[in-house]
Amino acid sequence: MSSIILALVIGGIFGATLDRIGATSPDWIGKMLALKHLHLMKTILLAIGVGSTLMFVGQMLGLVDVAHMSVKSAYVGVFIGGIMLGIGWAASGYCPGTGVCAAASGRKDALFFIAGGLLGAAAYMATYPAWEASGLLNSIAGGKVTLGAVPGSKFSGVSTLPGDILGVILGLILIGVAFVLPDRLVGGPTAAEVPAE
């Protein structure tokens, strides 16, 4: 019971944070994907970089149990699904997590997004045998692999670099990119951002 309560508390904090940084606003997401307002992208890069660095440093220090590491299988369908997710994200202004948070914050359009996602999942489940027979779900690159092998984990790496070190390096790179990335890559400042004379 305590794990369910903890999950609800952490989920609530995470959802409130997503709402606070603008991740539940289709307008902000659209501007981010158009490279006109990168605040949200910088926040995402910083969060992934800090999380990666802390997780892999924690594993090296023995504070994080490697047995909790979960790696999904690589297969062609994952890449196709990723492209479809990106198109859907750009078209709707939501990804699955931000859509649920937006619905919780009262956005009615997010309810249609969630309904569409559930219908898409049901369609996939109903047609799963056909997708499986097509070969799109067959593992590639050894299936469950990581960029570098993490000592003590059951997953092999595609490179000879230690996975912990590689995870920390990539995390630090993402943190650096978050700090040096400009506020926008396309367009000039909006009227609200031009200083008064």
Automatic annotation (TrEMBL):
Organism in which the protein naturally occurs: Sulfitobacter donghicola DSW-25 = KCTC 12864 = JCM 14565
Keyword Calcium: no
Transmembrane annotation, as ranges: 39-61, 73-91, 111-131, 161-181
Keywords from the named record: Membrane, Transmembrane, Transmembrane helix
Alphabetical list of Pfam families matching this protein: Sulf_transp
Classification via InterPro entries: Sulf_transp_TsuA/YedE
Designated name of the protein: Membrane protein
